[in-house]
Design goal:
By secondary structure, the protein is an alpha/beta fold. It is built from 14 helices and 13 strands. The chain has a seven-stranded parallel sheet, with helices on both faces. A six-stranded parallel sheet has the order 10-9-8-11-12-13, sandwiched between helices. It starts with 13 loop residues before the first strand and ends with a helix. Uridine-diphosphate-N-acetylglucosamine (UD1) binds next to helix 1 and helix 10.
Length: 373
Amino acid sequence: MTGDAVAEGLRPLSVVLAGGGSAGHVNPLLATADSLRSRVPDVRIGVLGTAEGLEARLVPDRGYPLTLVPKVPFPRRPDTGALRFPISLRRAIETARAAITEQEADVVVGFGGYVASPAYLAARTAGVPIVIHEQNARPGLANRLGARFTMSVATTFESTKLSHATRVGLPLRAEIRDLDVAAARPEGLAHFGLDEGRPTLLVFGGSLGAARLNGAFSEAAHDLLAAGVQVLHLTGAGKDVEVPTTSATGARYVAAAYTDRMELAYAVADLAVCRAGAGTVCELAAVGVPAVYVPLPVGNGEQYLNAVGLVEAGGGLCFPDDEVDGAWVRAEVLPLLTDPERLASMAAAAAAHGERHADDRLVDMILAAAGRA
Ligand SMILES: CC(=O)N[C@H]1[C@@H](OP(=O)(O)OP(=O)(O)OC[C@H]2O[C@@H](n3ccc(=O)[nH]c3=O)[C@H](O)[C@@H]2O)O[C@H](CO)[C@@H](O)[C@@H]1O
């Protein structure tokens, strides 16, 4: 597809993208939208999301129109929610279907999350081809449902068990895909108010923050600063850390709820300590930042599966959540920060394992499903 649909006698390609909740769902959607637009300049893009998820802010900020679909949590217990479920699901499907029809969508691309199931069901009844992208090693409920309706199923990881799955990797936003860490570092240090020439630690619990990491680093902040380590800690909205603002060594502890310039946070980091959401793991590997992963201890260890390949390749370490406290930071994290050789070899292993161009492979799949390959 050249992008000049009119010259080829076709109407411009129309794509509806559906997904939301955490940034882990929204960012691959935005990366795919940007990549589609650069490959097919006259593409029409619409996004389906919920009012409650991060997409409500991030999608319009990126310049894409967002249609709100009511959130339909799948009832896990037979209470009043379960009784209302069929009615709210039908309302959500009708809203999704109206948007798909109004936009004359050639293809619906779903990224999981609350909005994806109604979008898949609406696309199916409207006879519109479906493409699915699953970010995590272990697939979510919506994508397991959607995978029954299509042969175009893309995953981030080889190990993911979904019918008809093809591994494409995780689409990264252009500012991360194209990041030159060394070139961006001075801007990053200035942006966050940090100094050149100090070991720099980035702490974050995905896009939502992690109380466990916040508590452990509050406890250990004094020791990190005393060792001359400076810290950028993204705590998550509504979550706080109590940390010293000054130190005898002059090293600073900068805490913020969330940054829209994550590429700059990666550019300043010599080491990250973080959860193991798919976005976190794939972005850190792609830009070659070594990390200590503390997977969220829910379900059957899903987040550990996201990080295991990278950890086995030497690009990171992994610790269980219940070991993490101030003493753990002093024993496991601080020694790494004062070992530049070890950090350099972990960084090289991460970069060799990571990949930057999953967006191209997913866009190929979308164009093929829309009959525009
Ligand atoms: C899709 C998915 O599996 N979501 C899960 C993931 O969400 P979460 O959103 O944390 O998932 P990811 O690790 O996949 O992605 C985090 C994303 O947030 C961005 N970022 C983060 C901080 C910041 O200040 N600015 C910023 O832009 C990162 O660049 C990255 O793109 O882990 C959470 C717990 O750990 C779970 O509750 C979520 O259900």
